[in-house]
Every structure is written in structure tokens, then in C-alpha cells.
Amino acid sequence: RVRSNVEGKYLMDSVPFSCCSTLSSRPCIQHNLSNPAAHVHYDEQSQQLNLWRRGCQQALLDHYTGIMQSIGLTVLLIWLFELLVLTGVRYLQTAMENVIRLGDPESESQGWILENSLAETACYNFNIIKNLGKCYQVDDDPNINVPTTAADQEVPSHQAQVNLTS
Questions:
Q1: Rounded distance, CA 19 to CA 67, Å?
Q2: Is residue 91 classed exposed, middle or buried when 0-12, 13-18 and 19+ CB atoms within 10 A define those classes?
Q3: At 2, is the pLDDT very low, low, confident or very high (cuts 50, 70, 90)?
Q4: Mean pLDDT, to the nearest integer, of 148-166?
Q5: CB-CB contact of 49 with 33 (8 Å)
Q6: What's the pLDDT tens digit per position in 89-121?
Q7: Contact criterion met (CB below 8 Å) for 137 and 130
Q8: Where would you find the membrane-spanning parts of this chain (predicted)?
Q9: N or C: which end of the chain has fewer CB within 10 A?
Q10: Alpha-carbon Rg of the chain, whole angstroms?
């Protein structure tokens, strides 16, 4: 029901068919909702107008919220599985590097996940990220900030004289 802002009256006294409850045993009452004389043997309080109590917006919001929660849970589980696999592969990589260093493929070796402590590894990786764009900068160019002489300066084309002799 949509109330008017003038005297609090209803703008419409009907609802679309999609608002009808499928759980009700009576036919759906869509029109003349507020007129008790229009419906025979109908107790408005007990039968609750056989309409859904929540609106379409709330029903859709609840439905899509449930879908998004299940998708979010699935993504979280997949991410945790990938993190577990990544950790295992890192451990295997370092163990295999130690086997190669020892030179005996049949020997036992130790593996690790981080070579240094967590703080040292984070600082090392942060420095790598900071220096990513610096490889394209030219810091030691000998021609930067070198004063030029008057003879090296360009002469505008209208002032240049060219003597042609044959």
C-alpha cells in the first residue's frame, strides 16, 4: 500500500498479482484491499489479506544476499586451498634446491617457507617493489646539467646565412 502525503490516504487500493501468497488457500485478493464489504466471509486479521508480508525489494535482496554469501564462501575456500598449495610448493621448491646443492638426489634435505624472518622478507620484497620503476631512470648521464656554450646553441633559421660558391 502506498500512502499519500496528503491526509495519509492510499493512492491505490490494489496490488499486482506477484504480491499474492502461494501459501494461501483462498484466491488472492488484489483489489479493494481496505474495503471489508467487498470480500465475503473474509477476516482480515486472521487471513492477513493472503499477500506476502515482505515487499519485492526485500525478497530480491534476501535472495541475492544468499547467493552472494554462498559465492563468497566458495571463493574463500578456494583461496585457502590455493594458499595451502602455494605453501606446499614453496616448501618443496626449497627442499629440491637443497638436494641440487648437495648433489645427491637420494639424500634427504630440509625445506623452508621463508629464508629469513617474516619482517626481513617483507622489507626485502618492499624494496624490490619500490625499485621496480627505477631501472628506466638515467642518473649518471654526463650531459645532464652541463652548461652549453654560445657556439653550441642553435641559430634560428631566419638568421642563418649560407654562402654558396661555385
A1: 22
A2: middle
A3: low
A4: 56
A5: yes
A6: 999 999 999 999 988 888 888 898 888 899 999
A7: no
A8: 71-92
A9: C
A10: 40
Q: What is the pLDDT of residue 35?
A: 74
Q: How far is CA 56 from CA 25, 63, 71, 108, 125, in A?
A: 21, 10, 23, 65, 51
pLDDT band with cut points at 50, 70 and 90 for residue 142:
low
Q: Which amino acid is at 50?
A: N
Q: Could you give the 3-state DSSP secondary structure of residue 132? A: coil
Give residue for cell 541475492.
Answer: 64
Task: Give the chain's count of helices (H) and strands (E).
Answer: 3, 0
Q: Are 49 and 31 in contact (CB under 8 A)?
A: no
Check if the beta carbon of residue 17 is closer than 8 Å to that of residue 28: yes
Q: Which three cell numbers stand for residue 98?
A: 637443497
CA 94/CA 71 separation, integer angstroms? 35
Residue with cell string 554469501: 69
Q: Mean pLDDT, the chain, as a whole number?
A: 78
What distance in Å separates the CA atoms of residue 137 and residue 142, rounded to the nearest whole number? 14
3-state secondary structure of 51: strand
pTM of the model: 0.49
Question: Per the structure block, which three cell numbers stand in for 75?
Answer: 571463493
Q: 43 is written with which cell numbers?
A: 477476516
